Amino acid sequence: MERTMKCFIIYIGILLAAQSCGPTTRHLQSGDLLFQVGKNSGMEQAIKAATGRSKTPDFTHVGIVVVRDGADSVLEATSEGGVRMTSLKEFLQRAAPDIKGRPLVVAKRLRDTAGLAASLQHAAACIGLPYDYAFRHGNGRYYCSELVWENYRTPDGERRFPARPMNFRAQDGTMPQFWIELFEQLGEPIPEGEPGTNPNDMACDPQLQEVGRWF
User: Fold this and answer.
1) Which one, of 109, 143, 115, 83, lies nearest residue 31 by Cα?
2) CB-based contacts of 19, cutoff 8 Å, min separation 6
3) Alpha-carbon Rg of the chain, whole angstroms?
4) Where are the alpha helices (DSSP H) in 31-171?
5) Residue 84 has pLDDT above 50, yes or no
6) Cis upstream peptide for 57 (omega within 30°)
7) Across residues 69-92, what is the average pLDDT?
8) What is the pLDDT of the chain when averaged over all its residues?
9) What sign results for the dihedral spanned by CA atoms 124, 130, 133, 135?
């Protein structure tokens, strides 16, 4: 009897642990933002070097949850495909894993969702537009947090998230070679100090509250 009870307690513990590993996807809502720690590509490393904080995780990408017909998709701007709709499964698979193999992704939601439906419509209208490698707003191209910044607006048309002077330099003040080579190829100067956004700053905005994570 005692052994049976011990086995039962262990089983319940395992079950509860499994249930606590990540959010239940049915709790996601259209308009939630998914902040992702990307895998170690050259761009991911350069973004981390420029926007990383003294905490972990350092987010390098953000996408918008779209719930349609009971399925969760992610509207995002990626360097691989521009502005596109991606399955939630693919989005999670592209994230860097934690030490237990779980995707480093956090879901956050606006505390005030007034005007969100219109914001989503405007963001969806950007599908098919190219990725903004130049990181300059108003050029008909979008990088990930720029897609959110440009389209998430209050009912009176004001942008919800602030733009701040962009930093491309590493913490030691040097310019990563990735940015030097990228902007040489573009034939444009690095927009150091020009207004822009990044996922790490956006994730810390007090307008957002965490509603789940996968790690």
Assistant:
1) 109
2) none
3) 19
4) 42-51, 88-93, 116-124, 144-151
5) yes
6) yes
7) 95
8) 88
9) negative
From CA 26, how far away is CA 209, in angstroms rounded? 17
Strands 105-110 and 61-68: unpaired
CA distance 83 to 142: 7
Structure tokens at 51: 């926007």
Residue 75: per-residue pLDDT: 98
Per-residue pLDDT tens digits for 116-147: 999 999 999 999 999 999 999 999 999 999 99
**Residues in Cβ contact with 123 at an 8 Å cutoff, skipping those fewer than 6 apart:** 64, 75, 147, 148, 151, 152
Least-confidence region, from 36-40, 177-181, 200-204? 36-40
The CA angle 208-47-160, to the nearest 5 degrees, is 25
Contact by Cβ (8 Å): 94, 38: yes
Separation CA 106–CA 122 (nearest Å): 24
Listed by start position, the domains of the chain span 22-213
CATH of segment(s) 22-213: 3.90.1720.10
Q: How confident is the model at residue 6 (pLDDT cuts 50, 70, 90)?
A: very low
Specify the length of the chain in residues: 215
Rounded Cα distance between 38 and 60, Å, is 6
Q: Which distant-in-sequence residues (6+ apart) come within 8 Å of 188 by Cβ?
A: 134
